[in-house]
Design brief:
The complex is a heterodimer of chains A (275) and B (431). Chain A has two domains: 17-147 and 245-270, no CATH class; 161-232. In chain A, 65% of the residues lie in helices and 5% in strands. Chain A has helices at 28-31, 34-50, 54-70, 79-99, 120-146, 149-158, 163-192, 202-232, 252-274; strands spanning 105-111, 114-119. Chain A has a two-stranded antiparallel ribbon. In chain A, helix 7 packs across helix 8. Chain A is flat and about 70 Å long. Chain B has two domains: 6-135, P-loop containing nucleotide triphosphate hydrolases (Rossmann fold), CATH 3.40.50.300; 199-427, P-loop containing nucleotide triphosphate hydrolases (Rossmann fold, 3-Layer(aba) Sandwich), CATH 3.40.50.300. Chain B is built from 13 helices and 17 strands. In chain B, a hairpin with a 2-residue loop joins strand 16 (402-407) and strand 17. The chains are: A mainly alpha (275), B alpha/beta (431). Chains A and B meet through helix 7 and helix 8 of A and helix 1, helix 2, helix 3 and helix 8 of B.
């Protein structure tokens, strides 16, 4: 018998879609203030869209990849997502290689009416787009993997985000695994009553969605109802502000990280203008 | 709404002071709104804008009152059921309420977790100096330490008295759906004589788990036609995993599952559902149709069995489960007890040879437990096998023909079903 499960308790998550989540480790990046890291992520993302030379993007990708071991993250940590990253990057590369015809011909083939042409310009643009995609996606992945969501919410509230909005993030983080588990339980109950949700195909998916909507809606509303009682019973929303026991520290290194998030796009802009 | 609620002689005004009367709900998962124990217990005092030092003092006192100071650095996701409920109670105590109200605080817990919470509840009034009100179907151990017991039925107070007055009132309370401690004779759970036939379910050497975690380590269970078998054990022992393996919801790593003599390996759940029915824990997760009638037809329709015989069986089940007057009602408009009856009937409507039930008595008063038991005993008489997983050992000891204990993924046949409650003492915490 095999170890694979046709219906998974996590709501039938497809295995190769990356599950981006916090990976607890002891590293300088993990200890850095979430606001500073968020600032750097935003700055770095803007920067990669300002860079128009492929070697610059490849350099940025190299620096980013070097941060993974510095954050004590291993290849094994993203095994679930690696298929997605590789498949999408390959698709991006192939699309550009076969459909962008710029510069000298790198490879050509003819078979009857079919003419396949790959140019050096197409290959370079493909590499450019792949590098940009990987910097943005892996950068976000690194941020999420090194930032405890609860600390992010508290850091945002500490930085002045209204606490009602900050707790919306905390509640989402609290409820997501519960709702995912409930969706899994509903699918299992459907299969146990003979609904062929465990067979592949759009028809099975439609059947499952049709029968899942109502129990999930009721379960969600019931849970929200209980949470409102629990939160209102503890004076949530009674005052415009609140105090916080938890403090997310801001260290000297955090200022450097945030500054880097500002400096990088400025440098990229300057480089575009000067060269 | 009419009438007044008085607290210490003065009328309670809603919203005047949050947390004046603190409510702890049945399901701690629906109560906890943050991700760590510290954030959860500090949540209320922080909302009151108390200075951090005062928040810290209240947090320490509240966690101390429920014996949970050691949980302070933990994430709420990694707590056990009993720990979660204790943290939920502490989170309300941190508001320094003048009264604490708990709605079936042990309904979702297994025996050790229940004992853990009951111990806290027994000690709380003395520690707090505030009244504690517990709404419960089961009086059990708590009755001994309650200063007053009030029975409600049909929206009115039907009896009130002290624990010492219980004995003379056992029959009346039992009729009102209350389970009186130590009065198993009042449960009214009849057991028809089993005439076991061939095995409808045979599980042999079952090994299964999730990821790298092994949950079942060679479990053996056999249920024959015409008998009701109880599957008992502490939380995490593998009971639910075993039921899920039978229906192919979890693929076993090793071992064999036979349904009515046929190997279940490699068959999809939707096919195994012809022979095995499973009633899941939460009533709401297994209601899919817009009316009760369509809910009862859901299984037979999916299995291509909705013929005249199935329709006749559905009409008979509706009468037996007293839901024949509700056939055109949306299932989500029903009460908790009615939903549970629809769950069981809708699994039986496909005519499975083995009916499995996972914690069917949670949140049910004894009248509903009696009703479900009566139908299961009737199903036995028609040749079905029944396998029940429940932490309600008192009820199981009265209704089961045999029992199997599942601890750490291994099964042991229980010698004396009548003494089922005694085996919980081996699971860690004594009630």
């Amino acid at each position: 018998m095999t170890a694979a499960s046709p219906l998974r308790r996590d709501g039938g998550r497809v295995g190769w879609i990356p599950r981006i989540q916090y990976i607890p480790r002891d590293s300088p990046l993990h200890r850095a203030n979430p606001i500073a890291k968020l600032g750097l992520l935003v700055g770095a993302t803007v920067t990669v869209f300002l860079l128009d030379r492929t070697w610059e993007l490849l350099l940025a990708l190299g620096v980013l990849l070097a941060l993974f071991p510095a954050a004590r993250l291993r290849w094994w940590d993203f095994r679930a997502g690696s298929r997605f990253f590789i498949t999408f990057s390959l698709m991006l590369m192939l699309l550009h290689a076969f459909f962008v015809h710029e510069g000298a011909v790198a490879w050509e083939a003819r078979a009857g009416p079919i003419h396949v042409l790959v140019t050096w310009g197409g290959l370079e643009l493909g590499l450019h787009m792949v590098a940009r995609f990987l910097v943005v996606v892996l950068g976000s992945f690194l941020f999420v993997a090194t930032t405890e969501p609860n600390a992010l919410a508290h850091a945002l509230m500490g930085a002045g985000v209204p606490y009602r909005a900050g707790f919306a993030l905390v509640l989402a983080l609290r409820l997501m695994p519960l709702l995912r588990s409930e969706a899994g339980a509903v699918r299992e109950a459907q299969a146990a009553r003979g609904l062929a949700v465990d067979r592949p195909g759009p028809a099975a998916a439609m059947r499952s969605v049709r029968s899942t909507f109502m129990p999930m809606l009721v379960a969600s509303l019931s849970r929200v109802d209980s949470l409102v009682i629990s939160m209102e019973g503890r004076a949530f929303g009674r005052h415009p502000t609140r105090t916080f026991l938890r403090e997310v520290p801001w260290r000297a290194g955090d200022a450097t990280i945030l500054l880097l998030g500002v400096v990088l796009p400025v440098l990229a802009l300057a480089a575009r203008w000067m060269f | 709404m009419e009438g007044k609620v008085l607290l210490d002689g003065s009328e309670l005004v809603h919203g005047r002071r949050p947390g004046e009367v603190a409510l702890v709900q049945q399901d701690p998962d629906s109560h906890l709104c943050t991700l760590t124990v510290q954030d959860e217990v500090a949540f209320g005092p922080e909302n009151l804008c108390l200075p951090p030092e005062e928040v810290r003092t209240r947090m320490g006192a509240a966690l101390g009152a429920v014996g949970a100071r050691h949980l302070l650095g933990r994430s709420t996701a990694e707590l056990s059921g009993g720990e979660r409920q204790r943290v939920a109670i502490a989170s309300m105590l941190a508001m320094e309420p003048r009264a604490l109200v708990l709605d079936e605080p042990t309904a979702n817990l297994d025996a050790p977790a229940r004992a853990e919470v009951l111990k806290v509840l027994r000690e709380l009034p003395g520690r707090l100096g505030s009244p504690v009100v517990v709404a419960e179907h089961r009086l059990d151990v708590l009755a001994g330490s309650a200063s007053e017991i009030v029975a409600l039925d049909g929206g009115a107070v039907t009896w009130r008295g002290g624990p010492k007055d219980l004995e003379g009132q056992a029959e009346g309370l039992s009729m009102a759906g209350v389970r009186v401690p130590g009065r198993r004779d009042m449960l009214g759970l009849d057991r028809t004589k089993a005439v076991p036939g061939d095995a409808v379910l045979r599980v042999t050497g079952l090994v299964a788990g999730y990821g790298e975690r092994e949950v079942l380590r060679g479990a053996d269970v056999e249920v024959r036609a015409g008998e009701l078998v109880a599957l008992v054990g502490p939380n995490g022992g593998g009971k639910t995993t075993l039921l899920r393996c039978v229906l192919g919801l979890v693929q076993p790593w090793d071992g064999r599952v036979e349904l009515a003599g046929q190997d279940a390996a490699g068959r999809p759940t939707s096919e195994l559902a012809r022979r095995a029915g499973l009633v899941f824990q939460s009533p709401d997760h297994q209601l899919f149709a817009p009316t009760v009638r369509e809910e009862l037809e859901f299984g037979p329709r999916n299995l291509g069995m909705l013929d005249m015989a199935a329709r006749g069986r559905i009409d008979a089940l509706a009468r037996e489960y007293r839901i024949d007057g509700l056939l055109d009602v949306h299932p989500f408009r029903l009460s908790h007890g009615q939903k549970r009856r629809v769950n069981v009937a809708s699994v039986q409507s496909s005519g499975p040879s083995i009916i499995m039930l996972d914690e069917p008595f949670i949140g049910q008063d004894i009248r509903n437990v009696r009703g479900i038991n009566a139908r299961l005993q009737a199903a036995k008489a028609t040749g079905a096998g029944v396998l029940v997983v429940s932490h309600d050992l008192e009820a199981l000891s009265a209704m089961a023909d045999r029992a199997v204990e599942l601890v750490d993924g291994k099964t042991v046949e229980v010698d004396d079903v009548a003494g089922l409650e005694d085996i919980a003492r081996g699971w860690g915490v004594e009630e």
